């Protein structure tokens, strides 16, 4: 914090600061006001290895948790530790990229186990964009600098990317519904980095899972021509709320219309969403047995051409899946075709109240386009 450093110990030094509590740029201001000439910001354990750029007020560098430990150990073991901060220019074609930022919003959803969250990931680290000259790039009062552009990171930086892509898709396809736009974005996303490997999670350094990246990283060009989309109506959402055990009063409060849940026979995983999340509740006591769950979906063609799509899949570990039919033929734009995903799995040994989730996917392709949906299968042990 500002005023917390001893100027006698700080003057002329580069200070190692840990991330957290105080804004990163404000840490630099604290170092500068105490006479420091530079700063190294080290991630803490929960921050992982991901670093984000800031408009610092003095020469500074951000490093991940493991590098921070090395610097910390060096400071405490070297007789006379020294440091040099140097700028090597903007780095392009960094590999691997993209990776899931450590601050990225994670699932599962606290509201519903029957939707994989997040839907999608998008660029959110080091985003350069227009900036108001009414405040400094750090938004700190002692910072008198003004600039037309700034560089920020956060989920709030991903949001305008997705919003802009949705607007472009609506301009290109004025007849598309919000559900169709979301479907196009989700089913055309990619899950491999520029090394051809599974996306990595900055927070762990390991493979990212669907609770971190959802359907994958957004790909606007492919989203413009998805071939097929998963459409949704108001009734679909109402049926989803009914099957999710919302009361009719709850639903009427949300929809502002009367509803009769006794007429609904669907399951919550039957919502025609571009991803599939299945929850298998195991009664107590359960240590064995096989459970079968059938998921219903409907695809709509958005192309003015005949097309044939073939199904493929990757089964979640411990789950057997069958897609029926595994071939869909469309002869016109707007035509709908239904299919089901039959799943079966043995009971999983879990403690009361515990859950276990495994991921897979289903995919439809006509040879040029791919319509991919992640599948989450969750075992939940009842109390």
UniProtKB/TrEMBL annotation:
Classification via Pfam families: fn3_6, PA, Peptidase_S8
- Protein's name according to its UniProt entry: Subtilisin-like protease
For this UniProt record, the keywords arranged alphabetically read as follows:
Glycoprotein, Hydrolase, Protease, Serine protease, Signal
PROSITE patterns cross-referenced by the UniProt entry = SUBTILASE, SUBTILASE_SER
Give residue ranges for domain Subtilisin-like protease fibronectin type-III. 270-376
Family annotation (CDD domains) = PA_subtilisin_like
Gene3D superfamilies under this entry?
2.60.40.2310, 3.50.30.30, Peptidase S8/S53 domain (3.40.50.200)
Similarity annotation: Belongs to the peptidase S8 family.
Q: Which GO terms describe its molecular function?
A: serine-type endopeptidase activity
Give the GO biological process terms.
proteolysis
Cross-referenced SUPFAM superfamilies = PA domain (SSF52025), Subtilisin-like (SSF52743)
Residue ranges annotated for the Peptidase S8/S53 domain, each copy included:
95-205
Which InterPro entries does this one have? PA_dom_sf, PA_domain, Peptidase_S8/S53_dom, Peptidase_S8/S53_dom_sf, Peptidase_S8_Ser-AS, SBT, Subtilisin-like_FN3
Q: What are the TM regions of this chain, as residue ranges? A: none
> Which residue ranges does the record assign to the PA domain?
9-70
């Amino acid at each position: 914090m500002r005023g917390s450093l001893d100027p006698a110990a700080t003057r002329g030094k580069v200070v190692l600061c840990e991330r957290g509590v105080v804004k990163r740029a404000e840490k630099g201001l604290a170092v500068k006001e105490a006479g420091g000439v530079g700063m190294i910001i080290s991630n803490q354990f929960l921050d992982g290895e991901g670093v984000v750029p800031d408009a610092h007020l003095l020469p500074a560098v951000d490093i991940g948790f493991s590098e921070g430990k090395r610097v910390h150990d060096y400071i405490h073991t070297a007789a006379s530790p020294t440091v040099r901060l140097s700028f090597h220019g903007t780095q392009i074609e960094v590999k691997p990229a993209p990776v899931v930022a450590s601050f990225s919003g994670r699932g599962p959803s606290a509201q519903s186990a029957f939707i994989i969250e997040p839907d999608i990931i998008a660029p959110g680290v080091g985003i350069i964009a227009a900036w108001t000259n009414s405040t400094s790039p750090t938004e700190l009062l002692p910072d008198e600098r003004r600039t037309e552009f700034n560089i920020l990171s956060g989920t709030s930086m991903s949001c305008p990317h997705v919003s802009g892509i949705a607007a472009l898709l609506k301009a290109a396809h004025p007849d598309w519904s919000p559900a169709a736009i979301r479907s196009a974005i989700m089913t055309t996303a990619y899950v491999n980095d520029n090394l051809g490997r599974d996306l990595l999670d900055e927070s762990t350094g390991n493979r990212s899972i669907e609770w971190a990246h959802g359907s994958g990283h957004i790909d606007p060009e492919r989203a413009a021509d998805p071939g097929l989309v998963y459409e949704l109506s108001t009734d679909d959402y109402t049926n989803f709320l009914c099957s999710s055990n919302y009361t009719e009063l709850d639903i009427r409060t949300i929809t502002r219309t009367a509803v009769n849940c006794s007429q609904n026979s669907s399951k919550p995983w039957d919502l025609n969403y571009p991803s599939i999340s299945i929850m298998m509740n195991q009664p107590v006591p359960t240590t064995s047995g096989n459970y079968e769950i059938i998921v219903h979906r409907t695809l709509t063609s958005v192309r003015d051409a005949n097309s044939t799509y073939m199904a493929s899949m990757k089964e979640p570990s411990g789950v057997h899946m069958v897609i029926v039919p595994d071939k869909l033929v469309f002869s016109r734009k707007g035509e709908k075709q239904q299919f089901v995903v039959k799943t079966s799995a043995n009971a999983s040994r879990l403690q009361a109240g515990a859950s276990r989730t495994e991921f897979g996917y289903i995919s439809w392709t006509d040879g040029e386009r791919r319509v991919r949906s992640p599948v989450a299968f969750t075992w939940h042990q009842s109390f």
